[in-house]
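Protocol step 4 of 6: structure prediction from sequence.
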Amino acid sequence: MLDDRAKLLLKALVERYIADGQPVGSRTLSRASGLELSPATIRNVMADLEELGLIASPHTSAGRIPTARGYRLFVDTMLTVQRKELAAPQLAPEQPQKVIANAAQLLSNLSQFVGVVMAPRRSSVFRHIEFLRLSERRLLVIIVSPDGDVQNRVIFTELDYSQSQLAEVANFLNAHYAGLAIEQVRERLKTEVEQLRSEIAALMQAAVQVSSDVMTEARDEVVISGERNLLAVSDFSSDMDNLRRAFEVFEQKTQILRLLDISSQAEGVRIFIGGESQVVPFEELSVVSAPYEVDGQVVGTLGVIGPTRMAYDRMIQIVDITSRLVSNALSHKA
C-alpha cells in the first residue's frame, strides 16, 4: 500500500501530466505537490512508484508519466469531480435515431474526443404494420414502434400477393396484435393460424419473422462521432501506429458495442483505462461511459473514447450530463 506522501506525489504527477502532456521531473513535482521534500526524497518515492508499475520513464526523458495502472489508482482513489455548470445544449425530444445522433455529436463536441452512443434496446412491441407491393413476390414491410420509430424491410415471398390481400393482412394484424410483443404474436399465430386462409397465414408468419429480425438488428446499432478529433491529440498524432489502431477500433463497431453493453449493466459512470477492458485493447485509449434510461428503464449506454491522458473529472461530468439529457429527450411524452 502507498503511504500518504506517495499518494500525494502520484496525484500531483498524474494531474500535471494530464495538464501539460510532458513527463514530470522531480523539481516540477516538488512544486506541484506543495510538499517540502528534497529532490533526492522525491526521486526515491518516484523509484518506488515505478517499481510498483504506477509510473514509467520514457526513454527520451528523465521525467515520469503515469501508466494505465497509475491512472486507475488515481481515478479510483484520488479523483475529485468539481460540479461545474457545463454549457450543454438541451437535446430536443425527436425520433430516437435523431436523439442518438445528436447525443454522439454533443459528446464529441464537449469532450473534443470521440462520442459513442449505443442505440436504445427497442421494445419488440409494434404499434402499426403495413405492406406495400413492390413487384411480383417482393414486398416492403413498414413497422412502426410505440415511440413512433419507423423501420422498413424488403422481403421476398413464395406467393404473389395483391395489394388488397396485403391490406387485409395488415388490417388483421393491426386490429388483433398491435401493442403485443412480437414473441406473443408468434405464439398466438401458432394457435390461430388454422382459422386463416393458408396464403394469408404464410404472409403473417413472414411478417412476424421480419419484424423480429428488424428489432434484433436495431439493438446492434452504435453511433460514433468525432473520430477525426484524435488527429489533434498529440498522443496519437506523433505516433501513426497508435492512430491507425485507434481507427481500427472504431471500424470494428462490435468491440465498442460489447463494451457499452457491459457498461449498461452498472449504475452511474464507469471508466475503462488502457487495455483493462479487453474490448478497447491497448493502453493509449480510455473510455468513460454511463447508461441512459427511457421512463426509468435502462435501454442503452453512451460515452467518450479518448487518450488515457484525459481530464477524467471533466469527462465524467460530460458523460453524466449527456446521459441525463438523452434520458429526458427519449422519455418525452407528446
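Step 5 (inspection) to follow. The chain has a mean pLDDT of 81.
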